UniProtKB/TrEMBL annotation:
Keywords, comma-separated and alphabetical: DNA-binding, Transcription, Transcription regulation
Any one Pfam family match given in the protein's UniProt record, by short name: HTH_18
Classification via PANTHER family: ARAC-FAMILY TRANSCRIPTIONAL REGULATOR, HTH-TYPE TRANSCRIPTIONAL ACTIVATOR RHAS
Native organism taxonomy: Bacteria, Bacillati, Bacillota, Bacilli, Bacillales
Organism listed in the record: Paenibacillus chungangensis
Protein known as: Helix-turn-helix domain-containing protein
UniProt KW Membrane keyword: no
Superkingdom to which the source organism belongs: Bacteria
Gene3D superfamilies, per the entry: Homeodomain-like (1.10.10.60), Jelly Rolls (2.60.120.10)
Key word S-adenosyl-L-methionine present: no
InterPro entries: AraC-bd, Homeodomain-like_sf, HTH-like, HTH_AraC, HTH_AraC-typ_CS, RmlC-like_jellyroll
Residue ranges of domain HTH araC/xylS-type in the record: 191-289
Length: 292
């Protein structure tokens, strides 16, 4: 990897990025083959560093932490710190802050809480963690100076910054044996499942079918819906079938039978039963009512 080219590209093109509910402003990127000592200093923003190779120390408020190959460490706003290395470390880092005005309130609060209250600011043996794999891949891609792919890389950087918060969350461990899918990754799986359900609403859409499409176990997909959605899997499928049917009833002249088939109901009788339970009146009556 061309360290200098990667750093130049990121600092030229990727100074802001976003992901679901979060907007980041990036102050600078670092991609260095040899990082030595710096002065004791503070930031008004977050800085996260990834040691690729080499050794040194990270001192924060007088406490020294050993740095070795495959270490991630976090510097938080207003806290004095220093990086030291006599031989130099191959290291990447990013300095950033959240845009409070344009981020969703709940997402902003959760993300900030994870970083500000991180119990362990240094994580070891991170080479196989998704965040570390992603960061290395991004740097390698940036080193190729891919001007035509700026937007893709910007989106990827939003995913990277979101995932890094989970690395330092309370209870997170810096090795693969103890790692569990981050909440940001879990949310993305649920979002992907919801898109698949909406786009294939006429299909049976069993839990087994959707889990197979996502390469997950049925149990795991069901658990993700319970943890990261206001509906269970079956509840969401039913909601989307009813939503799609309601739109077709209002916007088209399709028969009730055709609408039932188009939205995945097994029969007109079952469609009418479920629709009436959800909407408080049968499909035919719903269609006759005025709608905005």
């Amino acid at each position: 990897m061309d360290y200098r080219a990667a750093e130049q590209f990121l600092n030229s093109f990727i100074m802001h990025c976003a992901t679901e509910g979060l907007r980041f402003h990036i102050h600078y990127w670092g991609v260095m083959e040899k990082h030595y000592d710096n002065l004791v200093h503070k930031h008004s923003f977050y800085e996260i560093c990834y040691v690729l190779r080499g050794s040194g120390e990270y001192e924060e408020d007088g406490k020294a932490n050993k740095l070795v190959d495959g270490t991630l460490f976090l510097s938080r706003p207003g806290i004095a710190h220093q990086i030291r290395s006599s031989d130099g470390m191959a290291m990447m880092y990013v300095a950033f802050e959240l845009n409070e005005a344009t981020s969703e309130r709940d997402s902003y609060d959760v993300y900030s809480e994870r970083l500000l209250r991180a119990e362990r600011i240094v994580r070891y043996n991170v080479e196989e963690l998704p965040s570390a794999l992603y960061w290395r891949a991004l740097a390698a891609q940036a080193s190729l100076q891919p001007v035509n792919n700026v937007e893709w890389i910007r989106q990827s950087c939003g995913v990277l910054l979101t995932s890094l918060a989970d690395v330092f969350s309370s209870g997170a461990e810096g090795n693969m044996r103890d790692w569990h899918p981050s909440s940001s990754l879990a949310i993305r799986i649920v979002i992907q499942a919801k898109h698949f359900i909406r786009d294939n609403i006429a299909s049976p859409l069993s839990l087994q079918d959707v889990a197979q499409y996502l390469h997950l176990s049925e149990r795991h997909l069901s658990r993700l819906f319970k943890q990261h959605s206001e509906h269970t899997f079956s509840g969401f499928v039913k909601q989307e079938r009813i939503r799609a049917a309601s739109e077709l009833l209002v916007a088209t002249s399709m028969s009730i039978k055709d609408i039932a088939e188009a939205t995945g109901f097994q029969s007109v009788h079952y469609f009418t039963k479920v629709f009436s339970e959800e909407k408080g009146r049968p499909p035919g009556l719903y269609r006759k009512e005025p709608h905005p």
